[in-house]
Known about the structure:
This protein is of the alpha/beta class. It has a single domain (about 5-240), classed as 3-Layer(aba) Sandwich (Rossmann fold). It is about 40% helix and about 10% strand. The chain has helices at about 20-25, 40-45, 55-60, 65-75, 110-120, 130, 135-145, 155-160, 160-175, 195-200, 200-205, 225-240, and strands spanning about 5-15, 30-35, 80-90, 105-110, 150-155. Strands 2-3-1-4-5 form a 5-stranded parallel sheet, sandwiched between helices. Helix 7 runs parallel beside helix 12. It is globular and about 50 Å long.
Amino acid sequence: MEPNAIKRISLWSGPRNISTALMYSFAQRADTKVFDEPLYAYYLKNTEAKHYHPGAETVLKVMENDGEEVVNMMLNYSEKPVLFFKNMTHHLLDLDRGFMRKFYNVILTRDPREMLPSFAKVIERPTMTDVGYKLHMDLIDFFETNGINYVVLDAKKVLNNPEHVLQQLCEHIKIPFDKNMLEWQPQKLEEDGVWAEYWYDSVHKSSKFSSYKPKSEPFPRHLIPLLNESIPYYNQLSKLALS
Length: 243
């Protein structure tokens, strides 16, 4: 296909934000090819995260480390009419963001009262840079300043009514909604990143978006300062989200 005729979707997520479930959802579409965090190795190569992210050495060995090369791939891959790139906002680092003009940009957020404890089970002491809330608002400022297309999703709103929110998302992207997006087989996806063994266990056991359930365990005390820093950003993001 001609590259300019393709719908290129970039999900800009923080960690533990149902981003993998959304990738699995889009993978059920016959017209869509999904990509799992193509900028991850670039991020690891250029940050201290390579010292504390599980499986970082393997990621650096098997993935493209050059961020500009990854962006070039994202802009020129053309085997399917719809391409879904699951990206983490903090993986962008200092890349020129002009390429986003050619994408349908989707920002995915989640209440930090739920996200932070989940993330800390793997990365014990995360920072604001790790979790992405401020970076999401910075990205929105960039989109607004430059007239770039974007939409915001809140994980809770997706889980409460996945069909309704996905219908709105597909309408925004100008693709038909496909009911196959609501269910998948409980198994690994061919496109899973090599880090799946550390992060994707619950998705591998799932067959659809889980029903939303509030967290019941006590919030970890050591995460309270980061929570207090994150909430104002999250509140702004949630107000913008499809519902």
